[in-house]
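Case study 2.
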Amino acid sequence: MGSLYIKGTRAMNHLIIAHLTESVTVNELKLFSRLFYRSKMAPKSDLLFIFPSKSILFEKTIAEEHNSFLKIFYSYQKNNSTSDFDTTHSKISNKKANESAEPIWGRKIHSNFSEENDITESTRMSYGSVVGFYADELDPENSLTGFLDNVPMSLRRWACYPMLLGRIRRNFKHIMLVDLKEILLLGDSLSRVKNLGQDSVLVSRITHSNVLSKHGRKKLENIQSNGKRQASSAIIIGGARGVRRLSNAMLTEIVREALERKKKNSVTESVLFNQLVGNEFILKNVELIFGESIAELSSLTELDKNSASSLMFMSQSSMVRRGNSNVDVTSFFKRYLRSFPLDSTAYGDC
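Prediction:
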């Protein structure tokens, strides 16, 4: 079950689970991967993709992006250049590496790191494993089809989490659930929950403009009248136990709502998620924390004209939301990557 695309250098404490909706393109997967590898999470996290269906092209893209990352890393290391890419956060001491367990993915092997991974006599390269699952592997019965006529990946992903999170519940301290199409990871987003307990879950707020675009003015008025804070289901970060409990509760909420409605296609993930986080009784075993709202790409409109401002934005933001902006995000970030000579060499399409 599942596919191991890249075996990491050691066992990690953090897991990022990125689901792909049906409309995700190869270019969007490439962009997500490239920015992830430039973030500070790649050296300390495993990355797991959940695909709506089998795609050889996506699998090929994942392997190519990792190889490009290694090429960039070793090029910067060889040229002793850290101004464009800080390699220090991608290295660990030999002592720590030897004390670390093997990655949980794939067959167990008992061997030392290859010479290629030895950066110096005292440090080694560190990066997490990259694995992938198809929705049919984690939810073989497509369990929500009995309640809904059409089950989009935005809903089915919640039926995939119980099997996955149940099997790895003792392997990771922190877990991130992220919508690959909606969120781009730029910095160390996991640092937000570093000192929180296993039952804690951090959700980000969304602005009224986001609610209007997704649910319409009438639903916004109903939500505001209830005095509930609005949260985004596009990214959820927290302790492994808290994230597992929240995901189980969300699956139950989807089924309950589907049973109560006459129209089986009227269930919307964002509305259900906000109903859930607003219900303290259902989530009484979860320490829910509302974080700051995530910047949308509309904020890049002016930055696109100013490279200095763009670099400052990238360095200060841990994540960004695509939203409904008209900004050509792919072109913007390609220009950003082209500003680094070695990156533009590794990425032929920049």
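The radius of gyration is 20 Å.
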